[in-house]
Design a protein that fits this description.
The chain is α+β, with helices and mostly antiparallel strands. It is about 20% helix and about 25% strand.
């Protein structure tokens, strides 16, 4: 069985608004969270920032809070959900499964992840 998921991301500058960032893709319900995120990144690539230090919050639309953080300088995301969580469980109860990458500027991704992990206020958004 397949899920059709929408992936989207914030714009990082005015010139980045020329084309919409929302893209749909399908994935097996048995795929794990990391496989879902890889498919989402392929469908909706994250913008690369000069200086190489973009920080992105990973939001599953319909869930409270972010499930993790991705940083341009990291090779993999850091998640607060178990990476083996199935797509079916990740989007449980969602009528329109969606992943959104929320740009958090060039903030320290370690500090942003720690805030997400502990449910603390996010650090200041840095340009």
């Amino acid at each position: 069985m397949l899920l059709i998921i929408t992936a989207g991301r914030d714009s990082v500058c005015a010139g980045d608004d020329c084309l919409p960032h929302m893209r749909a893709f399908s994935i097996a319900v048995s795929c794990n969270t990391l496989e879902v995120l890889v498919a989402a990144w392929r469908a909706c690539p994250l913008a690369l920032i000069a200086g190489g230090e973009a920080t992105w919050l990973i939001d599953i639309v319909g869930q409270q809070g972010s499930i993790g953080v991705m940083a341009q300088q990291w090779s993999a995301p850091r998640l607060i959900v178990p990476p083996e969580t199935s797509a079916q469980d990740l989007f449980k109860g969602s009528e329109k499964p969606s992943v959104h990458f929320r740009y958090w500027g060039q903030s320290n991704p370690d500090e942003v992840f720690e805030a997400v992990r502990t449910n603390a206020p996010l650090p200041a958004w840095l340009f």
